[in-house]
User: What shape does this take?
Amino acid sequence: MSNRSVVAAARCHQGAALPVWFMRQAGRSLPEYRELRRDLPMLDACRTPEVVVEASLQPVRRHGVDAAIVYSDIMLPLAQAGIDLEIRAGVGPVIADPIRTAAQVRSLPELDPSSLAPIAVAVGAIRAALAPERALIGFAGAPFTLASYLVEGGPSRDYARTKALMAADPGLWDELCTRLAAMSATFLRVQVDAGADVVQVFDSWAGSLAAADYERQVLPHSASVLGSVRVPRIHFGVGTGELLALMGRAGAEVVGVDWRVPLDEAARRIGPGRAVQGNLDPALLGAPWPVIAERARAVIRAGAHAPGHIFNLGHGVPAGADPAVLTRLVELVHTEGPALRAEASATREEPHEGS
Amino acid sequence: MSNRSVVAAARCHQGAALPVWFMRQAGRSLPEYRELRRDLPMLDACRTPEVVVEASLQPVRRHGVDAAIVYSDIMLPLAQAGIDLEIRAGVGPVIADPIRTAAQVRSLPELDPSSLAPIAVAVGAIRAALAPERALIGFAGAPFTLASYLVEGGPSRDYARTKALMAADPGLWDELCTRLAAMSATFLRVQVDAGADVVQVFDSWAGSLAAADYERQVLPHSASVLGSVRVPRIHFGVGTGELLALMGRAGAEVVGVDWRVPLDEAARRIGPGRAVQGNLDPALLGAPWPVIAERARAVIRAGAHAPGHIFNLGHGVPAGADPAVLTRLVELVHTEGPALRAEASATREEPHEGS
Assistant: This one.
């Protein structure tokens, strides 16, 4: 059993502890991050070890979360491979030359692991600076979400070009995803080799797909990325209620869930032997503290019905979130979590009947 | 049994027929609509009877759909009541003075039905121009979706201010929704009194909510709007997989479903005696025709497991959709639908076990 509570929970051996971290904890919500970043473009920040180290450690210092997550971006390995893109503030990834033809897919560059050397340096330094009981989470994008940016040229509401490509040319789609899976796998391996204890694979937009398409055209590529490392793995997407059973089969020890599905029901869908991560609605961070506290307690109680639980939000920290609220939330999870879990577990039905 | 196939299907008495219409069929995808609208602001177009009549009839003439839907906007009744807003092209509703305080909620104007006189005139003229076997669908917004625009000030990705208001001040939230429900009910009644045969209540963004919040703070207000008219009612939202059982209890005869949940599974969640509407993914309209046709057939087969089915997309027609594809889709539904339904119904399990 690991002395790192996030690792232990991912392996469903957490005991009384309830670990907590927040997606996007390193970033825009922290004034010290905005001070650090200033006018540095996002991808340049991700390539500068001292910025990566500092941005990754800031939320650990401030909030006392149980894990640092490497400050980076899912598009970084694509940029390091030579794809012309930028992360535009308030927009997201913008691709200079969207990928829509077979010729474009076939001329996608490969990712040389040595181009990730600054990230490896940063990861090693973060691990060295972290207290031994805190985990360091590496991450990468899943092929569908990466492909959606490449094909659409940027963020999208409906993923129409991506879905049309999937439907029109499944062979080309598989080729595109195979190349992207290789890049994400390299990105993960570099982070793990440099000291990441856990990884999270973000398939943020997979929830836009019907389950049958997800199973046939997305899951195998995500499984390939997840299968590329030997540390505990978390797999996350937004609006994945219909996909949780499939995501439970992708190879990750932990499935991250947004706020739409209570964690007890999520655990039922994901299947036995998998931990869950989540799932307080980040949109509620602007509510009065007693409301947030009551919602957080409900998340903890529901999570006690899964064999492992890592507390998190159901999606990333909003840019406008009050950092003091996040700190208070960490305190609540640490002080009230163990008793709430024990109490809720005592009433756990075997087998649990869902809600 | 009505001779209008949409009405008959809504009442689960459709026989062999499979009716079809498309959300947003009246609008941006049609060149004749863009010619008609020209530089006229959206809300002005909605207040001009001859524009409303022509825009509503255009898709019936072009595609041969089984229903016209009144060309309008869910925000129109709010504008007619005197709330300062516009529908900005490519953006959506923009509210001059977002509603965030109790004083603002309490000073919201009431809607005088006489301010909807141009809409009544238009609805009467559309009904008179339509062939008797075609239905005329009136519509309104559900209180949550309307409130989300008023509170956020426009479209939103996370509905953070709306959710914070719901959590922080449930009494004020109920007061806001009660007022909005009254406006939408008036909007529906004016359309029904003028000749609408069916209504659809759009709660487009309700899928952003957890089911427990939806049940407590949204469903009662939607039910109030649905309960205000005596014609068959369709209730629709996007990403509502977790809410379908609750939506089946809101009072509508038909629940509209997006593409994420197959219609046989949707019917199981919605419960007995309710028809379904949907659910081809509009993002697939850019795929090659054989792919679209095969997906449409799968939708028809799955829909045959519900006691009534109105074919539609899983969300609105995208602005860039090729109208010729929509016309071809109507032909497919009409020519292949009856046989596909009969065949799929023959294999229907009783009781159906879901997927």
